[in-house]
Each structure stands twice: as C-alpha cells, then as structure tokens.
Amino acid sequence: MATQLQTFAEQASTHQYLAAFFYIFATIGVLLGVVAVICIDAGLVKRENIIDTIVQKVLAAFIAGVAFMFFGYAIWNLQYYQAFGVPDALGVAVKDWGLFGFNLLHYAQNIDPKAVAEGETFQIFSIFFFCFSGLTAILIQGAGLERLKAAACYITSAVVGAVVVPVAAYLTYGSASPLTNSGLHDFVGAYCLYMVVGTWAVVLAWRLGPRLGGAPLPGHFSLLSIGVLLLLIAIPMFVVGCGFLVPDVGYFGPTMATSGLGIVFTNVFMSFGGGALSGGLIAYRTHKPGYILLGPVAGYVACSALFDIAMPWQALVLSLFGPFILLGGERLLLALGIDEPKVAPLALGPSIFSVLAAGVIGAGVPQGGFFGLKEGAYVFQHATVSLGMQAFGVVVIVGLTAIAALVVTLLLEKTIGIRVDHAHEVSGLDQSFWHVTEQPAAASVPMKAAHEAA
C-alpha cells in the first residue's frame, strides 16, 4: 500500500477528474431529491405541522447519512472484496472503507491504483450512498407524518442508515452482490431503496394508527408542486450516476449489464411522460390534481429497475401502469385502515412491478461479475437476468425489511413510544415543540370586516 507521501499520477489523470465530477453531479442530484421530498411532505401536512415536519426530516436525513458512513460503505464494498478473493474480506473492507479506514484517511493521489483504481470516484461514491441513506430515512419518516415522535424517528433513521441500507445494498445492488451475481437485476435501487421504503412505511403506519381526523388535504399545494418539480429535476441527475463509465468501452449498469448513457437518460423522460399521461387521466376522473404531480414519479418508480436494459418505447409503455398501481395501493391501504396515502403506494407496488418487468424484458441479458475477472464465480457478465430471480429478490427484501421494521418499531413502541401525545397532535406540533403558532394573514381582518359590512 502507498504511504501518504507517495503520489500516483494515474489517480490524477484528466479521465479520473472528469469521472469524479460526473459522480459529484449525480450525488448533488440525490441531495436535491432529499430537498424535494422535504418540500413534498411539508406541502402534505396541516399548516400547524409544517415546521416540525421540515426540521424532523432534515435531521433524520443527516442522522441516517452519518450512521451509514461508519461501516455502511464498507459493508457494500464487501461484495468486491469477496469477488477478488481477499482473505478476511469484511475486516479488510472495514479497514479500507470504514469512516476511519485507510481510503477515507488519504487523498486519492496517495492511494495505490492497484488497490483502488479510481480513488476519487470511490471516495465520492461514499457520499452518493450517504445521501441515499438520508433519502431512504426521510421517505420512511413520511409514513408517520404529523404523529411520529421525533426520538422514534431519529432512532429509526440511525438503524436504517447503519444497518438496513448497507445490508439491502450489499445483497442486491452492485455487480458482485450475492443476488445480482446470481442473476438479479436492478438499476436505480428498486430493491434496496423503494421496496425497503414501501415495506417499512406500511409497518410503521400500521403501528402508528391513523391521524386524528384522517389524512388532510395538502396544506400548501404550491409547496407540494415545487417539491415534485424539484424531484423531477433531481431524478435524471442521480439516475445516470448509478452506472459505470468506462473510457473507450462504454456505459454499464450497476449489474454490469451493457447499456448506454443516452438510452438511460431518454428512458427516464419516457417514464415521466407515461406516468404523466396516466396520472392526468386519473386526476380528471377523480378530481384530484395531485395525481398529475405524482403520476410522473409513479411512472419513474415503475421503470426504476430497468432503465439500463429497456428501450425508450418499452419504458413509455411500462410507465403507463405506474399511476394505476399507485391508485390501487392507496385504495388497498385505505381498505385495511392504514393511514399511508403516499409513500407505500408510490414506492412498494410500482417497485415490485418494475423488478418483475425487468425479469421479462431483460430475460437472458448477461450481467454480474466484475471487469477483468475471467475465471471463478465472478467472471464478467457470467450471469443472466431471469424472472424467477427477480421474484426471489422481492421475497427476500420484502421479508427481511418487514421483519426489521416490525422489530425496530415494536421495540420503540414498547419503550419510548412512537406516537406523539394526543394533546400535542390536536394543538399542532409546531406550537407544542417549537412554540410557533400560525399568524393570520395581514389582510384577513380588514377583509372579514368588509365582508360583514357588505
């Protein structure tokens, strides 16, 4: 290994910095997604809960991100250490990629490229996961809007960042992950992000019970609209960062499936378009404009596993189903008495549809392994996509997530409690915890007087 004073020119090449900035761009996209979700949820709650919703989500995101950085990135990287046959793979991965590991204590140009070929990119990618952990935590928190205790939220976020995201990503995300190397296919994180979020959201909302008076209409439709539009900007930014850029060769998905940057980018917008069309139809049939906003997002999630292996026309067709799956999920949870009208219906059903669709249209596509490996269990593109493996992945992730969510939530419920006091929920969380009360608009008094006079 290199000492801190050694410099390796390969780590400071033009290509290295261009790739690094590409992944910085994608990482900022994930952060923008975090901001967008905060705006969306702030627009969905009662006016007297907006401040508490925002501050709780911001802190939860950073708690999850920091928790991930201690050992989470090392756990995800474990798959590559196993692929290359490193003895004591987990221990070495922690020594290299834990928060106090060698590769996060040295500048990239001082790291031997024989150990880490693209030091800048791998260091930046740790923050890609940092932001994704935060996004996962606040999406889960969205299932407890206006009634989830802050302490329960923060503890859950820490567990999600430290354990849930790393383990789910290790199992399903990356070309050498155990399931991917056996033929499971994903691109954005349909398994380790959206399926995890959707499953945990159902468990959390079930244990919390419904909000007093039921789910309200959006308190700030304009804030909701801004959040969704920001999310539509963020999604293409971070989606392109999910693949591998290989100079003079091409672009590969995270499973090592051969793909193309232009097709992936086009597919994202086709998914927006199909989702918008179906969402618009549902909105006018139900007289609920929110479906026009959430339609493109549902279309995107319905294609999230296959952007790298689908053609644009296929992404367009598949995305048409997203909003209808969203609507079906909402009605199913309503029938079950579970107050969760957004996160679970938007994440769980469409993500399951996406991975199963990937198993159909991508059947037989070669993937898995890693560049340069020509023998052993991790030979480059030795595995093939199959519907059976996609379905098996659904069972594994939904099952493990449901168990983890139930254990964590029940422990919190039996100890510190998970729901705010009845009095606080009635008076509003902004007033109860931040001593902030909503002020009437300046023009409201004279307008009321003029109305009475008339």
TrEMBL record:
It is a multi-pass membrane protein. Residues 21-432 form the Ammonium transporter AmtB-like domain. It comes from the Bacteria. The chain crosses the membrane at residues 20-45, 57-76, 122-140, 152-173, 188-209, 221-246, 258-284, 291-307, 313-334, 346-365, 385-412. It is found in: Membrane. Pfam families: Ammonium_transp. Keywords: Membrane, Transmembrane, Transmembrane helix. Its main location: membrane. This is Ammonia channel protein AmtB.
